[in-house]
Structure formats: C-alpha cells, structure tokens
Amino acid sequence: MNPRDLAKDGGEGVRVATARRIVLATFGSLGDLHPFIALAKELKARGHVPVLATSEFHRERIERQGIGFFPVRPDLLDVESKPELFRDLMDRKKGSENVIRQLFMPSLRASYDDLLKAVQGADLLVSHAVAFAGPIVAEVTGIPWISAVLSPISLLSMHDPSVPPQAPWLRHLRMLGPRFHGSIHRLARLTLRKWTAPVQAVRKELGLPPGADPLFEGGTSPTCMLVLFSKVLGAPQADWPPQAIQTGFAFFDDVHATGMTAELKQFLSAGPPPIVFTLGSSAVMDAGSFYEMSQAAAHQLERRAIFLIGIDPRNRPREPLSKSMLAVEYAPHSELFPRASAIVHQGGVGTTAQALRSGRPMLVVPWGHDQVDNAYRVCRLGVARTLSRERYTVRNAATALRHLLDEPNHLTRASEVARMIRTEDGAASACHAIERVLSLSVP
C-alpha cells in the first residue's frame, strides 16, 4: 500500500504483530508534551516500546509514567531560570520568531546529535513540528518518519485562514476568500524562511542538498502527518497535505502524581462552581498583572474563584485572599475544569482542548503564538469570548465574564461541543495510523 493511502483509510490502522521501538520527539510546554505522553501510553498498552525524546526538563514527568526517556537539547531548564527570556518568548508580535531564533536554532546541531543517538535501533520516528532535527535525522538514517501538528495554525490553509499573533486584524478579512489569503501566505513564507536559515546550514554541513522550508513542506513527512486536534477546532481542508490524518486531541493529564489537593477539593465542595483563572505552563511565567486583575474582576462579580498561579513567586497574592478565592500552583485541568462555572485562560492548544472537553464557557486572553488563532476559533464556535492581553482590565474582564455566565446559550453550546469532542479518541486514532505505517515498513 502507498503510505499516502493512510489518509483515505481514515486511520483505521492494523495491529502490528511484534513490538516496535518508537521514538517520539517533541519540545515546548506541557501543551506540547502531554499529547506525546498520551501517544506513548497508548503505544505501550499495545505492546510497543515508546521513547520520548525531549528536554531534560521533562524527564521526571515522563519517567513516572513508565515511559522511556532520552534527553535532547535544548534544555528548557535554562529557560525557566531566565524570566526576562520568557518575556521575549511570549511577546505577541515577535514571540514565535524569538522561540525559533533564540531557543531552537542555536541548539539545532546539538538537537540533531542527540536525536541521532535516540533513534539508534528504533523502528519509527514521530516528531513535533518544532523538533526541527527530526526531518534531518529521518533523511540521514532512512528511518520511517511521521510528522505531527498540534494546532490549526500549523496547517496554513487559504480555505480556513488562521489569525497570526502579529496581525490579529486579519480575522476581519476571512470573507475575502482563498485567493487573498493565499497571497498572504506566500508573503508570510518569505518572512518565516529567514527564521530557519540555520537548518539549511546544518544540512550543508552534513552533506545534504538544500531542503524545503522546515516550517512547511520540509517539516512534513511525505508518508503520514498526524493532525492531533479536533475537527471542532479546525476541520479538514482541501489544501491540507493528502497524507494528513486528523485524529482529534490526544488527552493526557498527570492526575495520579499531581492531583487536586485536599484543600482544593474542600474549596470546590464548599460553594457554587468557581471561575478558574489559568495561564497554562508558559504564559504563567510572564503573567504581569493578570492575577491581580482577575482577582478584582471576580470580586466585582461576587463570584468564587480559583487561580492556578504556577511556581513563579511573583504570581502569589500580595494580600490574603478572601474565603471565596483560592490560589494553588497547579491542578489537573481534566479534574478541575468540569467543576468550574467558566474558565479564563491564555488559549494554548492544550488548555483550550481541556476547556472544550469540560463543556464550560471560556474567556480567552491570548499572549502569542497559536493562542490568538485558537481564541478566535473558539469564539466562532459560540463557546467563548476573547480579550487581548492589552485590553484585559478589571472592567473588561468582569463585563465579558458576566455575559458568559448570564447568557445560557454559551453553556448550552459549550456542552454540545464537549459531547462532540468526547466521541473522539485522538491517541487511539493516532496509534492506528502509526501501526499502519509500521506494517508498511520492513521490521
């Protein structure tokens, strides 16, 4: 079978008779890690030997799931210790460029060397779009390779145009159609190609010919691309690669190791469902005045509230909170979100997925990257409202939340969307596709 026929088969997959060693390469926040842990756990349950190749920062979280780990640079421990760097990485206009140019490109050759060791003896490589060494390692070694994307903005479509963080005004121009957005994409490619120039330098150093743009065709496996988000967030488009297989979200939450504390459970049981305020695992390191504004907005609404503030001491309340509010470092979204009245978050795809599955209305306050596009997508679904970071004031937050909480159509629509997402099993569907690729390759 031609591997491109995988997409036509709908990802049904075939069970592979023998256990295979499968390397899963990813980088980034928990939103980038958790879907790959979900795949690894499903592959292990099917008798395979998955290995997660990523930053040393995530080692403990991976190994306590009983999943093999292999360190690949860059090490995000270096980023966590530099709050000023987080500001650059989360900047709305230049954050994505800074992530690629300041974090990934300087470590590209080291990433290649590490990942080359990780795939020794492996039968398959699955790599995240930002694991830029993945396509190079696959080309050098000839290992079967699957690429993966986590959010719609990674699949530029002129039929379903995304909203880049640098130009949120483009959301008003959706009606101009494919020809207009196709021209916008061509201009974007010219700019983005400069960000990944070191990829071509490494290819030349390794004796490889110049490759396609690593943010587009050069980062897409010709055999199979896993689209690890729900059709609710972004439906398949005619200009997606023909080998793309949409699986739905691959959910994972570390509930056994980092479950809800007794204090949190007691708070939830002591009154009406609270508003939950969170900034995920990246924006939380550059929170600014978000939690102060949120506390004041909840007070103005006379609503109970929970704040997930992370480990950054700057996010801790300056004054003791009232009995109607609670601040905790972290709580599993899959357990907490369904018990909320509304969720205020930054719009990262992992947080967005959990919020959609919870069936609760949301207010999205995007920082950058894919978050702006995700925010407008959930607004179009009728389950959310959005405020830019600059417009997130006490008054604006309270007004938006009042609409979400007082208009029952938001909760009704959120419940409908949640039911659709719960019918999907992203991890199982992705592993069906992975096993079909394995069945086509020589053991």
UniProtKB/TrEMBL annotation:
<protein>
    <submittedName>
        <fullName>Glycosyltransferase</fullName>
    </submittedName>
</protein>
<dbReference type="GO" id="GO:0008194">
    <property type="term" value="F:UDP-glycosyltransferase activity"/>
</dbReference>
<dbReference type="Pfam" id="PF03033">
    <property type="entry name" value="Glyco_transf_28"/>
</dbReference>
<dbReference type="InterPro" id="IPR004276">
    <property type="entry name" value="GlycoTrans_28_N"/>
</dbReference>
<dbReference type="GO" id="GO:0005975">
    <property type="term" value="P:carbohydrate metabolic process"/>
</dbReference>
<feature type="domain" description="Glycosyltransferase family 28 N-terminal">
    <location>
        <begin position="22"/>
        <end position="152"/>
    </location>
</feature>
<dbReference type="InterPro" id="IPR050426">
    <property type="entry name" value="Glycosyltransferase_28"/>
</dbReference>
<dbReference type="InterPro" id="IPR002213">
    <property type="entry name" value="UDP_glucos_trans"/>
</dbReference>
<dbReference type="GO" id="GO:0016758">
    <property type="term" value="F:hexosyltransferase activity"/>
</dbReference>
<feature type="domain" description="Erythromycin biosynthesis protein CIII-like C-terminal">
    <location>
        <begin position="323"/>
        <end position="419"/>
    </location>
</feature>
<dbReference type="Pfam" id="PF06722">
    <property type="entry name" value="EryCIII-like_C"/>
</dbReference>
<dbReference type="InterPro" id="IPR010610">
    <property type="entry name" value="EryCIII-like_C"/>
</dbReference>
<dbReference type="GO" id="GO:0033072">
    <property type="term" value="P:vancomycin biosynthetic process"/>
</dbReference>
